[in-house]
Design goal:
single chain, alpha/beta, Rossmann fold, 9 helices, 37% helix, 20% strand
Length: 232
């Protein structure tokens, strides 16, 4: 993806500049994972979360899919074997993985239905799919959509409501935020069962980086939401 090729360093820098938010999101990503599973990360980006999962949770993710060659290059330096292509065109071995996660990548995928079908085929029986992202109905996505429409964070409509250090506008403009209900429906249609939900970042986006926030059950108020379901 061109936006991430051009702004790969800005992606990592933004997270490092928002350490409490990063730690909060990392807690959520780890919530449905376990260290004994074979895990595939779809849209692994720079491998930042995967690196921190290994460091802080002893969860080691060795395989990733990432369309941005610049992001994939960084991820590979961090020890991930990356298939550099869009998830829609990637061929994944059937019945190979215990867990497949899409962390922060759902909103950058054009054909999510196709990707969920591919994930179902690639999972072992009893395997889990976790979609972790900013839902469209959240406060963050509302601000992102407004900033995207305006083409900038520097606008009177965003004064005093935007985070002090907002997500890079180039990456905001490339996204297509989806509601939690949309994602759940696609997973159900494609055969996933036994749904579980978790969320974090429940304060207003202006205050999301003030403190580390814990993981809560449900998806009714978090600005970062994990939807996890199983393959029969």
């Amino acid at each position: 993806m061109a936006a991430f090729d051009e702004h790969a360093s800005a992606y990592d820098s933004w997270f490092f500049d928002n350490q409490n938010l990063l730690t909060s999101e990392l807690k959520l990503v780890a919530h449905f994972l376990d260290k004994h599973s074979e895990i595939l990360s779809v849209g692994c980006g720079s491998g930042l979360f995967e690196m921190l999962l290994a460091k802080d949770y002893d969860i080691h993710i060795k395989h990733g899919i990432e369309p941005s060659k610049d992001m994939a290059e960084v991820a590979e330096k961090r020890g991930i074997k990356v298939d550099v292509r869009p998830a829609e065109t990637c061929e994944i071995e059937a019945n190979k993985f215990d867990i497949i996660m899409f962390n922060g990548s759902v909103s950058y995928i054009t054909d999510l239905d196709l990707c969920i079908k591919k994930a179902f085929a690639a999972l072992k029986r009893g395997g889990k799919l976790a979609l972790i992202d900013v839902p469209k109905e959240s406060g963050f996505a509302s601000l992102y959509n407004l900033a995207s429409s305006l083409g900038t964070w520097q606008h009177p409509l965003l004064e005093h409501i935007a985070p002090a250090d907002p997500y890079p506008i180039e990456l905001v403009k490339s996204a297509n935020w989806r509601t939690s209900d949309e994602k759940i429906a696609l997973m159900q249609i494609n055969g996933f069962v036994d749904f579980q939900y978790a969320q974090t970042l429940v304060t207003h986006p202006m205050y999301a980086n003030d403190t580390v926030q814990e993981v809560l059950t449900g998806y009714d108020r978090g600005d970062y939401v994990a939807i996890c379901a199983s393959k029969k």
